[in-house]
Each structure stands twice: as structure tokens, then as C-alpha cells.
UniProtKB/TrEMBL annotation:
The keyword Glycosyltransferase appears for this protein: yes
Catalysed transformations (reactions): Transfers a segment of a (1->4)-alpha-D-glucan to a new position in an acceptor, which may be glucose or a (1->4)-alpha-D-glucan
InterPro entries: GH (IPR017853), Glyco_hydro_77 (IPR003385)
Gene: malQ
Entry-linked PANTHER family: 4-ALPHA-GLUCANOTRANSFERASE DPE1, CHLOROPLASTIC/AMYLOPLASTIC, 4-ALPHA-GLUCANOTRANSFERASE DPE1, CHLOROPLASTIC_AMYLOPLASTIC
Keywords on record: Carbohydrate metabolism, Glycosyltransferase, Transferase
Name of this protein: 4-alpha-glucanotransferase
Gene3D superfamilies xref list: Glycosidases
Lineage, uppermost ranks: Bacteria, Pseudomonadati, Pseudomonadota, Gammaproteobacteria, Alteromonadales
Annotated EC: 2.4.1.25
Pfam hit, one: Glyco_hydro_77
Origin species: Pseudoalteromonas aliena SW19
Length: 663
């Protein structure tokens, strides 16, 4: 292997991949060189290449242990690397925080799990058995003879945290779309709190949320929860004014609530959220809350705020603002209300409660990126290779993290990110979970769009998910739609991570829908998600009409797609009619077809089954049309009815689902 090819491998620059149609695609050397450049490496500098190859390949064998040592259950072995001539040296392993002091009088005879030859010397990797230690991260020292090295031992459970082995039913929502009982133009934590009671009354087990990440207060038109300002902070627009203690006896707030613009907002009933207006008004309301806190808060509340700021200091310090304490206050209130909603889920007897959603990346001009710029690539963005839904591939415009730099400070960035998104919830869905193994990098090569796969430290990132899920008692769902390497599916399954199935895409080789018995048991089963039209819109072809209305497709293409849709509807009818006695046809109304489909899928063995509130609301407009930005008002469409109205209308239907799932 030549030096450059070796560095491609050591830096995780992909060589080839299998396309969705089975075609094997090989990346050119020019493309791979450009990916290396984006990683901060000059592919034409032979000295730099030689130095990096030494550091990434040779030097690791000259260290007793790496900076992070994975000790995985059930083996519980610590791997050390030594010159084989040191086999008879006395070895010490000390974990001071746990009071662990181990002595190995000799290493001779221990299992050899790896070897490396350098200048005629054989270096061997040995497996030392450790006692059971608590799940988590533990600083340790390892000494072999006179050689002493520090490492951080990660005690990794065999699987992520698991909930009761039962069929769970839940509701999938985009929080901002809920009709706001306070009539402030956007769904908030107050609406979520009320929804927990409705779900609890229908024996539901969880509520799957959209990402609650911080967006851009100064640019409210940037509404996508999947292109956030920071994934470790919450969006203050979800704060319910009336749930704040500082709304009580607040004269300034009461006066503002009587103003003309507030009255106009409360009387409006728009299909799409006007983020500019909503954000302007809510932040004025937030100011009155903060002013009231500053003037009247008792010692206990001030101390609680101080404690919050201390506990979240690292993340809060990433905020960029002229009034940081005001922004800290909003984060405090958002955390309090999210925790209130999860506590309500627990009180309602829900098995899981809230399930958070973690976006695959952050915006390139946000506080997360600015605070961690050194970890990101130079000129590469996250995307996806060509697939049946985007033949040209996709560039999501999110800066790509550099694999080699993720390990800085014991992977502190990723650990903190996962922990932040597992707090105050019962589960975490990870968008595009393949990112812990590989990501498609989009970049320009000689002025032309280009891309390739880049591989990440899979074992370490998976270990973090396992550890943090137990620390936070949070189940984990990996959104694994698209081109997924077999080793990723196997690793996720063996780690107890739920996969995510969209029924629309669960097809056999002949294009027919798979049978109910073939749906995966350990998965989150949904008919669709935020990137797919709601069922009524899909059945009635409304999504095609909307695309034509917004000039996303022309009349000829719309006609062609409508013909394909009829064929898809016929396949769906064949699936439904094979699983029930009542016969449906193409003239059946969308609600009847939807309810029949749901009742069929409720019989599946899938542990997690989610209904979209959009479908219960009989929505026609999608919440998002992938591939559009300014053409269609993505991430703004509100529900037609209140949650109470939706649940009242669907009460018997929801009861039937519950009966099937428990049967």
C-alpha cells in the first residue's frame, strides 16, 4: 500500500460503496484527495503524509493504552500494547475514583488479540480481565514496568437502556404545529403538557417530538429544526408563557397582552406559522417575564437559576448575545417546562414518555459551529448519495465533523451532545444514525460538485450511546432510512437500538408491500414521517397538486407521477385487503383506508408503533417538502384542529388500536 492510500484508509476516506440499485461505485483519487484536503491535510505534502501515517499507525503501538480504552460487557477486558519482551513485567491498573487497584505479576500467557512488527520488534496487544465496574467514564493509570500511562476507561454495557418488553403505541408530532391554547401562533410546552394527558387517557406509551434545538432568534424565518443554531440548547419559542412563575402578578405582561398586535395574533387562524411575527411578539413577552424575575424573584428561585447556570455552564457559554443572562433565563425556563412534560408522562403511566429527536448536524453559522470550529472540516457538508427519491444526491448544507478530531478531550463534544438531548425525556431518536459509522461528504472538486463517504470512529460513538442511555435511562432509536451498510444494521440490532421503518418504503423485490409478519420487531414502525406527505394528502394526490402549484413539477411530470401513485394505491389496497375482511377500492375515502391500514399494522410485532397526529387531523398539506427551501413554506404548517378535538373525534379508533396492541 502506498503512503497516500494508507492515509486515505487511516483518515476514513472511503474507497467505494454500493449504490441503492446494487451498483458498486468507486471514488476517484482526485475525489479522495479533495476529501483529505477538507480534513485539513495537504495530499501533495509527502512529509505531512509520512508524519500522519506514523502517528495514526505506528505511534499507537508504542503506547501502553490509548487516551480512551473501551471495556465492553460482558468480556470486561482492558487491552494494552507492549513490546513482547515486557511480558514478564509487573503490571498495575488503578482506577482511583472506584478504589480499584489491580496487580498482574506477569502478562505472560494472557490472550494476544493483536500484533505489530516494527524494526524487527514484535508488539502485542493483550487482554487484561477487569472486575465489573459501573457504566460510565473512569480515569485510570496503567503501569508496565517503568512505563506509566493515563487512560480513560469507558465501561460499556452490552446494549443501550431497554424499556419493558411490550408493544408500545405512541404519537408522532411536530410540536410547533399544535394549535396553541394561548393563541400565540405556535405550539408550545403548555400544549405538549395537555397532550400528555390526552395520550395517557388513551393508554399511549410515548410522544415522539421533532428536534427541539435552538434556532435563530434574529432570523426567525430559518424555521427548520434540522438545520439548527445549536443542538445542545432548546428553542425558547416553545416556552409557554402561562407556565412560567414570572407570569403571575406581572403587570407589564398583562399590559402587553392587551396590545393591538397581541390581540391581532390571538385572533388570527393561519394555516402557516408567521415566524417573524410570532417570534417578535413572544420575545417581547419573554422580556416581561425576565424583568419580573429580576425585580421580584425570591432567594430560592435565584439560587435555582444560579444552579442551572452552573450545571449547564459549558453549553450556555456558547451563546452569543448582548444580554446573556436573559438568554440563560430562557434556557432555564425551557428546561423546566420540558421536564414538567416528561414528569406528566410518568405520572400518566406512560411507559416511555417523551422521545426527543437529534438532528444530524448544525448550521454553519450558528453558535454550535462557532464554539467547535476546530472539530469541523473545511469546505465539506453533510448530504446523501443518489437514491430513488433524489437521483442527483442531496447536500443538506450542514458542515461535516472531522473524524480524527472528534476524539479530542475524550470525545467530550459528542458525549455532551448526546447527554443534552437525553435529559428530561424517556428516549432519543437519532436522525440519520448511519452518521456514527459514515457520512456522505459534499464538496467541490475543480469547481464541480463532488462527494464521497467518510468513516467515523464507530465503536467509540456507539459506546457513547450505550453509556449515556444508561446514565439517562433513555431508549435509543436510530433513523436508518436510505443506504445503510450491513455492519451498521447488525451493530444497531445487537446493541438494542431500535431501527425506524416507514411503511411506505417497506417493499418486496417485486414492489409489493411486505407482509405484516416480516416487519421488524425491534423497530419504530410508522406509516410516514415529516419528509413524506400525510396519508390523506398522499391518497388524494394532494401532494402532487401542491408541488405543481409551487412550480416544483410541471403538468407532464405531475400526470406521470399521478399514474404511478394509482399503482402504489393499488398495492396498498392489496396489502390491506389481504389482512381484513372488508374490501376497499380506489374510490374508498382516505379516512377509511388510513384507519384500515393502521389497524392492520397495529397487529405487527413491532415493539414501537407511532401514529402521526397529522394523519389523525386528516392533514392534506405536508409539513416539509424535501429538496425545497424558499419555494414551499416548510416547517410552518399548523394543524387544522386542537388536540382535544382530534382525540375526541378519534376516541373509538384509538381505543381499537390499543385493544389490538395489548391483545
Amino acid at each position: 500500500m502506498d503512503a497516500l492510500s494508507q492515509l486515505f484508509y487511516l483518515h476514513g476516506i472511503g474507497y467505494e460503496f454500493t449504490k441503492y440499485n446494487g451498483e458498486q461505485v468507486f471514488f476517484s483519487e482526485e475525489t479522495r484527495k479533495r476529501a483529505l484536503q477538507c480534513s485539513g491535510v495537504n495530499p501533495d505534502d509527502n512529509n505531512q503524509i509520512a508524519h500522519l501515517n506514523y502517528e495514526l499507525d505506528v505511534a499507537v503501538w508504542l503506547q501502553l493504552v490509548p487516551s480512551v480504552s473501551l471495556v465492553e460487557s460482558p468480556e470486561n477486558t482492558l487491552k494494552i500494547r507492549i513490546d513482547e519482551r515486557q511480558s514478564h513485567a509487573v503490571t498495575y491498573v488503578k482506577i482511583e475514583s472506584l478504589g480499584v487497584n489491580l496487580t498482574f505479576q506477569t502478562l505472560h500467557g494472557l490472550p494476544i488479540v493483536g500484533e505489530y512488527y516494527l524494526d524487527g520488534v514484535r508488539y502485542i496487544e493483550l487482554a487484561l480481565s477487569l472486575p465489573n465496574i459501573p457504566v460510565g467514564y473512569h480515569d485510570a493509570t496503567v503501569q508496565v514496568g517503568e512505563q506509566l500511562t493515563q487512560t480513560q476507561i469507558w465501561s460499556v454495557p452490552e446494549q443501550v437502556y431497554q424499556v419493558a418488553n411490550k408493544k408500545c403505541t405512541g404519537l408522532s408530532i411536530q410540536l410547533y404545529t399544535l394549535k396553541n391554547k394561548a393563541q400565540l401562533g405556535i405550539g408550545d410546552f403548555g400544549d405538549l403538557l395537555a397532550l400528555t394527558h390526552l395520550c395517557g387517557a388513551q393508554s399511549m406509551d410515548y410522544i415522539l417530538l421533532n428536534p427541539l434545538h435552538l434556532l435563530f432568534a434574529d432570523m426567525p424565518q430559518r424555521a427548520s429544526p434540522y438545520s439548527p443554531n445549536s443542538r445542545a440548547l432548546l428553542n425558547p419559542l416553545y416556552i409557554a408563557i402561562d407556565l412560567c412563575d414570572d407570569a403571575k402578578n406581572n403587570l407589564e405582561l398583562n399590559t402587553l397582552m392587551q396590545s393591538d398586535d397581541l390581540t391581532a395574533l390571538m385572533q388570527s387562524n393561519e394555516k402557516f406559522i408567521n415566524y417573524e411575527n410570532v417570534s417578535c411578539i413572544k420575545y417581547r413577552l419573554f422580556k416581561t417575564l425576565y424583568n419580573h424575575f429580576e425585580k421580584t424573584a425570591c432567594h430560592e428561585r435565584r439560587q435555582a437559576f444560579t444552579d442551572f447556570c452552573n450545571a449547564y455552564s459549558t453549553t450556555l457559554k456558547t451563546l452569543e448575545s448582548d444580554n446573556l443572562m436573559f438568554d440563560y433565563y430562557l434556557q432555564w425556563q425551557a428546561h423546566l417546562q420540558l421536564a414538567l412534560c416528561q414528569n406528566s408522562c410518568v405520572a400518566q403511566g406512560m411507559t416511555i414518555g417523551l422521545i426527543n429527536d437529534l438532528a444530524v448536524g448544525c448550521a454553519g453559522d450558528g453558535v454550535e459551529f462557532n464554539a467547535q470550529q476546530s472539530l469541523f472540516s473545511q469546505g465539506a457538508h453533510v448530504g446523501a448519495p443518489p437514491d430513488p427519491w433524489a437521483e442527483a444526491g442531496q447536500n443538506w448544507g450542514l458542515p461535516a465533523l472531522t473524524p480524527q478530531k472528534l476524539g479530542n478531550n475524550h470525545y467530550q463534544f459528542y458525549r455532551s451532545l448526546i447527554r443534552a438531548n437525553m435529559q428530561d425525556v424517556g428516549g432519543l431518536r437519532i436522525d440519520h444514525v448511519m452518521a456514527i459509522r459514515r457520512l456522505w461528504w459534499c464538496f467541490e472538486t475543480n469547481g464541480k460538485q463532488d462527494g464521497c463517504y467518510v468513516y467515523y470512529p464507530f465503536e467509540h460513538l456507539l459506546a457513547i450511546l450505550k453509556i449515556e442511555s444508561h446514565i439517562n435511562q433513555s431508549l435509543v432509536i436510530g433513523e436508518d432510512l436510505g443506504v445503510v451498510p450491513p455492519e451498521v444494521r447488525h451493530a444497531l440490532a445487537s446493541s438494542g437500538i431500535f431501527s425506524n421503518s416507514l411503511f411506505y418504503f417497506e417493499k418486496q423485490y417485486d414492489g409489493e408491500f411486505i407482509s405484516i409478519n416480516d416487519l421488524s420487531p425491534h423497530c419504530l414502525l410508522m406509516i410516514a414521517n415529516h419528509d413524506v406527505p400525510p396519508f390523506k394528502g398522499w391518497w388524494q394526490h394532494d401532494d402532487l397538486d401542491i408541488k405543481q402549484q409551487y412550480n416544483l413539477i410541471d403538468e407532464q411530470l405531475c400526470t406521470s407521477l399521478a399514474k404511478q401513485r394509482v399503482e402504489e394505491r393499488q398495492k396498498l389496497l392489496r396489502f390491506i385487503n389481504a389482512n381484513q375482511t372488508q374490501e376497499l377500492d380506489l374510490q374508498s375515502n382516505a379516512t377509511d383506508v388510513y384507519q384500515s391500514l393502521v389497524l392492520c399494522l397495529a397487529k405487527s410485532q413491532s415493539r414501537l408503533f407511532a401514529l402521526q397526529i397529522d394523519d389523525l387531523d386528516e392533514q392534506q398539506y405536508p409539513v416539509n417538502i424535501p429538496g425545497t427551501d424558499t419555494e414551499y413554506p416548510n416547517w410552518r404548517r399548523a394543524l387544522n384542529h386542537t388536540c382535544e378535538e382530534i382525540f375526541n373525534k378519534n376516541a373509538s379508533f384509538l381505543a381499537a388500536i390499543d385493544s389490538i396492541r395489548k391483545g
